[in-house]
Design brief:
The protein is built from 1 helix and 7 strands, in the order ββαβββββ. It is mostly beta strands and about 100 residues long. Strands 1, 2, 3, 4, 5, 6 and 7 form a 7-stranded antiparallel β-sheet that branches.
Length: about 100
């Protein structure tokens, strides 16, 4: 899994098509069997619901939120829907 969110301004819901985060992406990849699915926004309309990431907490120590996206694999033209994704991770300083 890979999520890149450009223009991050803190906890809120980011809906890529609506917020125009054109440099942002979500990705799901496998090594075996090989597959690489990238997210895309189907429309720039306000009712667009995917892809999104919602940052619920970012206090400098922990980042918590959820996400969902539809992703396309150009190798075999398959589509995957990633739903009910969640994360809660701790940020540590470098050692």
């Amino acid at each position: 899994m890979e999520i890149f969110l450009s223009n991050y301004i803190g906890p809120k819901k980011y809906t890529f098509g609506y917020d125009k985060f054109g440099e942002s992406w979500m990705r799901y990849a496998l090594v075996n069997p090989a597959g690489d699915w990238f997210s895309y926004a189907e429309t720039r309309q306000a009712e667009n619901k995917l892809p999104f990431i919602q940052i619920q907490q970012d206090d400098g120590n922990y980042v918590k939120g959820n996400f969902g996206f539809k992703a396309y694999n150009s190798i075999d033209n398959s589509v995957k829907l990633v739903s009910n994704g969640s994360f809660n991770f701790k940020l540590d300083s470098e050692l």
